[in-house]
Every structure is written in structure tokens, then in C-alpha cells.
Amino acid sequence: MVAEVEADPDMSIHQLQLSYSDKQDRLVFRFNTTEKEEVSFYFTRRYVMTLWPALVQLLELTTDDQPPMQQSAADMPAPSTSLSKRVQLDFEHTQAITDTDYVKSYEQAETLPLGEQPALIIKSRLKLVANKLIEIEFISIDDLSVKVSFTKAMLHNFCNMLVQVEAKTDWQLTLEGIQMTAYGGQDQSALH
């Protein structure tokens, strides 16, 4: 499955793609840049299990809070468990997915700076950076480190792709925490 969204002008990511390799029993994550380069990673079941809660937490942290109404402090719900925050997160997720083009084909890159073989990712470091960008540092089994900056819309789409592609595996993971509205094609890959 392929998905394409408008990226910030400062971002170099052009497209994201996620697919499942039944031969490897791994997810294959590829992204190409506006400079026509491509980087690819393998994700294992174990890695996805540890990555997912961190992704959901980052999306919750970047969710825009509704402006407070005239309420007393006693009437205000706790921010992290607020129903309105959950509804806002679900709304933002649906909006990001709806605004994405899942029809366009993945564009092949001219260069592969890390080589043809995907790097096996075993851990990540995630953090919020300026302007609500999310930086994910993917770290391979060979200690290769690649930092990728996602917009909030890209991260929502990445999560959507994880849910769709994981469903095609026999991993039986429970990827929840945001309303997962699946959009896109029915093939074995997802592209953003």
C-alpha cells in the first residue's frame, strides 16, 4: 500500500512504504526522499511491540488541546486521560488519513545510501522536536543509526500503515490506542 501526503517544505521525506515479507517474517519499511534516495529497514514482531506504545504516546503528546471552556479546576479532566483529548486525537488521526493519497505508486529511488539490503532495526529513540515534529532514531543490529523526522500527519499515516500491514501477518499483535481508520488499497504494502 502506498500513501503520499504533503510534507513540510523543510522535510526531505517524499514517500513512506510499509510491507510484509512472509519469507523474512518481517515488516519492510522504506522511505524515499525528495533527493531521490531510499532507505529501508526490517522491523521484527518484537520491535513493533515495543515501538507501538511509544508512537501512540507521541501522538497523544502532540494532540492539540481544545481551548478551555469556562470551568472550575474541579470540573476539568486530567489532560492525559481526558475524553476530549482522546476524541481530538481520533479526529486528527482520521483527518490525516483522509488527506493522504494512498493511490499513487511508490517511486523508485536513484540511490540507496545504506545499500540494497534493509537494515534490521532493533531499537529506537523517539522525541518531540520544534514545531511538533517527531524525530525517530532507528538503530540497527549493526549499530547503524538513522534519524527520521516525521510531521504529525506522517506519523498518523505511519501508524495507520503499521496497523494495516500487521493485520496481514500472523503476529496477532493488538495495536490500539487511537481510532484506527484503515484507508488505502488491499495489497500487501502501505505507502504514505
What would you say about this model in short?
With 192 residues, the chain is an alpha+beta fold. Helices cover 26% and strands 28% of the residues.
Radius of gyration: 17 Å
The computed structural class is alpha+beta
Count the strands? 8
The portion of residues forming beta strands comes to 25-35%
User: Distance between termini?
Assistant: 8 Å
SSE pattern, N- to C-terminal = EEEEHHEEEHE
> How many separate structural domains?
1
Q: Count the DSSP helices.
A: 3
> Main sheet?
8 strands, mixed
The coarse overall form would be globular
Helix content: 25-40%
Mean pLDDT across residues: 76
Taking pLDDT < 50 over at least 5 consecutive residues as the criterion, the unreliable ranges are: 1-11, 66-80, 180-190
Overall description:
Strand 2 (13-21) and strand 3 form a beta hairpin. The protein contains 3 helices and 8 strands. The N and C termini lie close together (8 Å). The chain has one domain (2-64, 79-191). With 192 residues, the chain is an alpha+beta fold. Mean pLDDT is 76; it is low at 1-11, 66-80 and 180-190.
